[in-house]
């Protein structure tokens, strides 16, 4: 629905970087060697001293390579300036990426890792408008925002009083519902406001809006967009977001309708797959195991739900949407159902129901799709995330025979 925006937006975001020029007959692609470093050998045993040694070795090699390139091809002064700035961020970017990568097994003390990071960050500015043309810098600040966001999620769980006081100026009891609807919206905007300013902040706000659209994280999109326009009323990015944000605002006002069916107690008294199947005996069913917190779930719903409903309109197929790990989030849950116009049966699962369905279908992640035949037998759909819509249609059609 909103994907058309992304390519145009990316082109605008990187316009300044792509506008660099080189005089002479230089082959610009060879400059990729300046930032090429393979740290995968440290994936399962990353010691900070070995990591920084490898990075420093590549950094020194980069200096030599760039000097030779400049001497041979005589690029413009603008190109040289931007390349030098980008070079300065190489070590900080490379080390930070390893330090915060959840897939890396790190050894050594946290203090040692932090000391090296602090040393690297002390010689570069985290917020630096002049560095926005460089891939190393863009990589660093985007990764920084992502991992700091995840750090805040952990803080909300482990130190809720301090978290809600600092970021929402409230108590955990009053702030939990706000946070549940704001894990990737205004919270990230506040994080950007704290660490960045100028054109870098403008760039990161645009990147945040792009990510919210691509992840179908739309609940607070208008709020973030309005904040962005207040900060940067003349930004060149604004025009790219006007139409998709207006569409989101319209969808957010959609009400629930009679075809959005909620069992007694929102289905929270159902404890097993058998309990669920009693609601829809003798029908072919597509069960969508999702959650309001799940970006891939929302993306799949946005991409395929309406098309699937349209295809099976008037045919013997039923859609059941089971929301998992959303207890206590009834308002957000129903708002998203209305937003996506999800007609069908909706269940706000308790833990017993979630566990039973996932165990019986040998499933572990979300979204998970389950096909139920008319005779009551069921199995995981052959197509999962990312969904092949035609394959899903074929399988559900066969189940209805």
Automatic annotation (TrEMBL):
Name of the protein in question: TlpA family protein disulfide reductase
CDD domains assigned: TlpA_like_family (cd02966)
Domain spans labelled Thioredoxin: 250-401
GO BP terms: cytochrome complex assembly
Coiled coil: none
Location in the cell: Cell envelope
PANTHER family: THIOL:DISULFIDE INTERCHANGE PROTEIN DSBE
Signal sequence residues: 1-19
Organism: Mucilaginibacter myungsuensis
InterPro entries to which the protein is assigned, alphabetical: Thioredoxin-like_fold, Thioredoxin-like_sf, Thioredoxin_domain, Thioredoxin_ResA/DsbE_sf
Keywords: Cytochrome c-type biogenesis, Disulfide bond, Redox-active center, Signal
A Pfam short name: Thioredoxin_8
GO cellular component, as recorded: cell envelope
